[in-house]
Amino acid sequence: MKEIRIHGRGGQGSVTAAELLAVAAFADNKFSQAFPAFGVERRGAPVQAFTRINDTPIRLRSQIYEPDYVIVQDPTLLESVDVASGLKADGILIINSDFDPETFKLDTKAKIMTVNATKIALDIIGMPIVNTVLLGAFAGATGEIRPESIMEAVRERFPGKVGDRNAQAIMEAYKMMEGQK
Amino acid sequence: MTHEMKTDKKNMVVVEGSYAVAHAVKTCRPNVISAYPITPQTHIVEDLSKFMADGEIPNCEYINVESEFSALSALVGSSAVGARSYSATTSQGLELMHEVLFNVAGMRLPIIMTVANRAVSAPINIWNDHQDSISQRDTGWIQLYAENIQEISDMTAQAFKISEDRDIMMPSMTCMDGFILSHVYEPLVLLEQDITDEFLPPFRPERILDPKNPMTFGAFADPHFYTEFRYQQERAMQNSLKKIEDVANEFYDMYGRYFGGLIDEYQTEDADIIIMAMGSIIGTIKDVIDRLREKNVKIGLLKVRAFRPFPAQDIMNVIKDAKVVVVLDKNISLGMNAGALFIETKSVLYNTDIDVPVIGYMIGQGGRDIPMSTIEKIVSDAEEVMRSGIKIESQFTDLKEELI
After folding, report:
1. Chain A closest CA to B64's CA: distance in Å?
2. With contact defined as beta carbons under 8 Å apart, do B100 and B69 qualify?
3. B259 close contact with A: CB closer than 8 A
4. Which pTM value belongs to this model?
């Protein structure tokens, strides 16, 4: 089983990203489960969302304490949230940032990767909405999921031009991370 | 009867638990839905209102009301005229319905209500436990608890069929853990319309409110009559024990899915330790059991699906040969220092020749997360009870002493 924790701020679409990841994973012939950290979500407040991906049906209902992967939508969260908490040593931490991974001195043995998702989102989607872009980055960095499945899940949720632009941004982020592996 | 479940992956979709319930309700062809929003139930009635707006629920009235008291009161009228009636609520909303819950059961109206289980105030808390529905234990509603979104979806159709049976005619609460199931995205097979139409025929009650054939419902019963009304309600509840099993089996025959009738069992056959629980925690416990079985711990699970009617005989049959029974309760009966399932289980064992120690844990209050390690800790307590007897009969779990 692979466990993913997404850190973001209320309004950044962390929960939506977790859900889309679950939909995409299922399309990839895996079993999946996505759920929010059940906070009283307020815009701007730190939030978490979780996704599990497995070859067999998922029964476990607890929150995720030892994730294989962590996605951070907003690097300013690092000042207040221990985003690397419990992250497995062979895991990957993906941060939305234009800084190099080495910039981030985090208490983890896991690999840190960065992607300037905000720039990709602004360039292609025209808005600084990075949740779908980071899913593309996740696919590229981890190989856990096909980018096409994510693009399809996003297009289904956001039909028309919005979905198309998001899909394009997903592919851009995917390629960028694939190249860094 | 054995139940083999195949995972029907090609017919599965990944949706939110609330959507799965709303879709199930739609598929059951309700005639009246009353709606009042309250977290974490709101997505259910929102999805139903979308179905209504899209014309996907024919012959149905969707009534926006001004409180939960009104939500259920509106259904008293609609169910009495013979309309299949549905609502959903949780927590304080369910508590506000308390008076009407008795009326619904007393008038023998087979209303179905989803409860997205949530803690009760004060202090205010929107997260999951079972205090809300457990507090309505004695109102005469059948209470069924689901472990995943497939089960709550399937249970919705089963509940209509159970409640509307002429030997039963009692309302049902189908209970799903708030957020944990109401807001989870996971794969399930949505209820199929053609099979459901066959499984659940239209609601045709024996007696309805009808101006052409006037009668009263729940009007007045003086001491000369009242006891007999209560007796018949209890008799209907007892009848529902078999009906719940039968309907689960019938559902299995038609849909190929089974999550238990009154109860379900997991690895109980040779188990020394049996854990009893209800709701979404069942899945986590199964994972713990698999892990412990690898270490040769003889442990099993008794999932309680029906809390009312209480499946005393089924429970006794499963736990009679165990060496210790551990009951997990997401509720507390204040002043008893114990949860309801623990209290009931102990009570059914008295006056029998079953002599098994039973210990209780109040767990997951107000949404406190239940990791596998918490269950494993409880199991090690149970092993200690096997070695040296009960030291603490019932206790709070994961209590933070430093906060007290």
Report:
1. 25
2. yes
3. no
4. 0.97
